């Protein structure tokens, strides 16, 4: 059967029209998806978590000054409440004790491994009825492998198996970074030595 | 009137062409708008303020240790300048006094309301000629409703009706958050009790 | 030669098809490029450094209380390790000394220039074998030119010519800002006066 030319053309145009419509739909769909995830006024606010842009694991080692270990000590009590003193951590779960530290950072859990940097800052025991601390400190790196600092702040309810603190900034290799560090107590020996493992997950890298 | 088939086809094609062109224009326009608002090199820097992604209001209550209120006290002086002591806030507007706290957080301004979390950290009085403090602390939540921490730092010129400090990070329900908290002194009783209202406006939510 | 209508229509449609295909390709290409540069799951993480959105230079001046200069002093020792006291910076490179300060900020390096704000917070000497400190403080501005705060935290290995700390947040004119401040010791006189220059580079402005 011979088709009328108009009908034929119209039929082809219809197919073309459908194809175009479908393509345009796909494009609009892609746009809508992207608008939904990133370009709305909500752009700056609702962010996707996703995978960290950098993951790091370190250990750091704290030997607190107790009046007898001046040579080895890496930290010291520098503030206490009225009922405390600066060579013995205070009662009431050390509430109010302020400790300044300069702890070696190692890649494994061995205190005697070569340090790759220093953890420097302070912690404050801040609860009377259970051990809990507040931390403000930096990881300071100054080697050919790593150079720069990562700055941390946050609550450390240290009786929990793991606890999260904030990575609030960084410099050098860690310029402007942000993230979360998960701390866990890897060892705890009397009231003189403890070792923390820090699993650092950075979610903003520059 | 009977149209010539070619003319008809061409006419329909023209309409189709116009339709396609118009659709493509709209798409390109959308793309251009989006490039303008988000994908330039300025993307990371100039950000729009807009509405907060989360708004929260809490109260927290500080009862400072004065030598007699050990049971109720939620905070204690742990550092003072040479002229101070740790049971009475020092002269010169308490300049130099370091206070560690573990304060209950409530949803209303009643000290005896069930606490929904703890405000833990420290403040330092840091000005000789007027009351002013510097704050480093966390809101710690651990209930079925709220879990995680919000970390704060900043200057607190506490004689001002309101003052803004920074939300520098968060964990759990407040993972990676940033924002501004507006503090106001809701009550102040002698030198033993004060209550702060914190209006937290988060502008980065993940 | 007169073309058969069908053939003609078909030919035109083919051209239209090609045009559409080409346009759609361009659009998809644009989309792909933008996906690559900004909208992937990496969007929030890998950020371009580029130029700061704001650059500021200030000086601040610290006069530490030594028992005799109560009138002029802008800072005081408020915590020390067991071997220290609060009118003389401790041995071992002042390890453990906590100093609270309220220092004038000036636009040039002259202590007597009119202050444009105050640097308020604390520093902690935190290393036994070299001078190193950890800083938590704010620049507080309250003039017609500048209003708001910039909050800082980080390690200050002060024997280095320059060292970087983090801008962790801000309020007012510096709402939500982030960046890096490069500190350098502009003057150091005995153990009583020092002057720091702060080159502030902000990379997130709102």
TL;DR of this structure?
The structure is a homotrimer of 206-residue chains. Chain A is an alpha+beta fold and 206 residues long.
Give the SSE layout.
The structure is a homotrimer of 206-residue chains.
Chain A: H1 5-39, E1 54-63, E2 75-79, H2 91-94, E3 98-106, E4 117-125, E5 133-142, E6 147-156, E7 163-172, E8 178-189, E9 193-204
Antiparallel strand pairs in A: 1-3, 1-9, 2-3, 3-4, 4-5, 5-6, 6-7, 7-8, 8-9
InterPro entries (chains A, B, C): Allene_oxi_cyc_Dirigent, Dirigent
Organism (chains A, B, C): Glycine soja (Wild soybean)
Subcellular location (chains A, B, C): Secreted, Extracellular space, Apoplast
Q: What would you note in describing this structure?
A:
The structure is a homotrimer of 206-residue chains. With 206 residues, chain A is α+β, with helices and mostly antiparallel strands. Chain A has a single domain (54-204), classed as AOC barrel-like (Beta Barrel), CATH 2.40.480.10. Chain A is built from 2 helices and 9 strands. Chain A has an 8-stranded antiparallel β-barrel with strand order 1-3-4-5-6-7-8-9. In chain A, strand 4 (117-125) and strand 5 (133-142) form a beta hairpin. Chain A is elongated, with a radius of gyration of 29 Å. Residues 32-44 of chain A have low confidence and may be disordered. Chains in contact: A-B, A-C, B-C. At the A-C interface, helix 1, strand 2, strand 3, strand 4 and strand 5 of A face helix 1, strand 6, strand 7 and strand 8 of C. Chains A, B, C: Homodimer. Chains A, B, C: Pfam families: Dirigent. Chains A, B, C: This is Dirigent protein. Chains A, B, C: One of its GO terms (cellular component) is apoplast. Chains A, B, C: InterPro entries: Allene_oxi_cyc_Dirigent, Dirigent.
